[in-house]
């Protein structure tokens, strides 16, 4: 059993459904006119070329000819519909009355297909192929009203996975344990699409505001994302496309359900449908009410009408309707690509553009749909047993109250089996205090073994923000963000004091977003204050995306030490500690550009780790020389490695108190402080007494503007500063520190494949951490790992898919089902054993 890559035929089909070059051709050609195969081939070729630039043209050409030949052999079937059928045959299979992805193709499905296009048309094509012969239109009408599936997930969860009896048996008994999922970023693009079709102006309002944001970096990021999809895409153009797609859908649903008169005059072209909304185009009636756009519209509705449209088109093809259908799908995927990170968009900066554009915001004001999504498709048991949902705390009590009421109110509705429209017998209480009391009462009556609904814990994550030295930077590094963190921490703790029952739900803290923007030390003081206040579970995103492999290792090392993570605390991602040094070196350019101050800290971390490796004395001596030189250039004085180490280990101190202690006669007793912050002030005074010189040098590092300028100077460094063996030894030294501290690493396969240097799931570093044959390296210590899905909406997946991706990767490397599950099951089960949940709630 080997993993199979995507075929060129499927690449062409994906391009036909998503390329802006294809959309341009569709736009300029009237619907009643067949597309020129020559022009369509050119558009497909140009759209496909960047994807497979290293393949010779004849590979594309032969696949294109095969597609055209197959279409010609099927009477009246258009080339697009033939491509949909070919793709569904390649990736999907019917088993036990349901559709699944072929296990050998699941990696390519996740990476290459649904990272670019919605999978719904492919599912519909697979279903259409097994439908009975279509009946005459007059008989078709008797099949209405259309009754969609009853469970929320069956209606609205568009993701599909493989089917393996051994895995299904295990998950049926054990369930999945989610340890790292951001609640915002979890809504699937298909559900956002239906909302956008219904109210395009409302759904794109925030996108338009972001596009024109006063924050230049945010606006640039949003425009870069949009223009990478289509150079002509803008808020105005997106709105026009949504209006046109909404109108197209009405015609297509009418055609699919047999309510379209043969004499009706169809629209002329796409431009006509993109006219101002006030110029209403006559649309066919009656379209079945169940398939009209409404708040109840679901992915199952889309799947249903598309499969019936395809079935009819295969037998009674209409050039105009086929062209309208093609246009609808390309418009859908233009929008889809604004919400889902493609395999060609590597790195956290690319990922963050999807969080900036605000297109998910309207849908994600309601949290109930996401809880049903994590539940899965079974009615009476949740696929997920334990769920940790992450959210960002606010800087006022009122905003936190609103957020927590929305989240826990949605969870209450989920527990009471309400659907996303709020239909149910036990609505959410109006006040947060009453809601918390009723939730507590619910779980007092619920068995800890009850799996009818998943158990929820919340982890609040502070946001890393970039810092730019300059006139407005403040008196020390990350001045503004440090003050914001203290404010947010105080407000969070005030919430816990105001509503003590929240402690059963807010179970831990985290710091998320781009690790290149902010280092672990700026969160240290707030982490300790939260811990003293009873938030004793901690995790931290680290080693996810990094300028240099040493930078990623350093960030993990700093997080362990400066945040004092241990005894069940966790690190999110940790890619730098697991990725194959050989693979990283092969995928990166020979020279990397990095800030001098960052490189100094990277060398410091490397020097400290190398000193723990008896065989690395020569490498440690070389690093010591380079580190001394680099530190001397930054500080403009001689600085030994041990002195720099002593200075930088004080970075965990609260810098506001450091400034007060060094620049004034201040002491903790002068200004009244809460007990929680009094301890932070005392730490600074202890350092001032015991290590005054080191504290002054730390303050110089933090506050001296000339030093800032020197430390921010860019320089080129070798990616191969060390050889593969030395990088491997550094990773192993860090893994030993993780194991010694009893810290768990949260592994997030889809997220890492998108954000790191991997081309497929079979390269993922968790295989090494599972100690899979061929991946584990001699000298690797055992570390504990748990599983998470991160942002399943942005990666078009779910936790079930993450489990299957790793299982498939193990099977693809030759392990049988029992051996693969034996390696993978402990990762899932660590999520249960080391969960942050309140034990009183099960």
From TrEMBL:
Its cofactor is Zn(2+). Belongs to the metallo-dependent hydrolases superfamily. Adenosine and AMP deaminases family. It comes from Pseudomonas versuta. Keywords: Hydrolase, Metal-binding, Zinc. The keyword Hydrolase applies. This is Adenosine deaminase. It comes from the Bacteria.
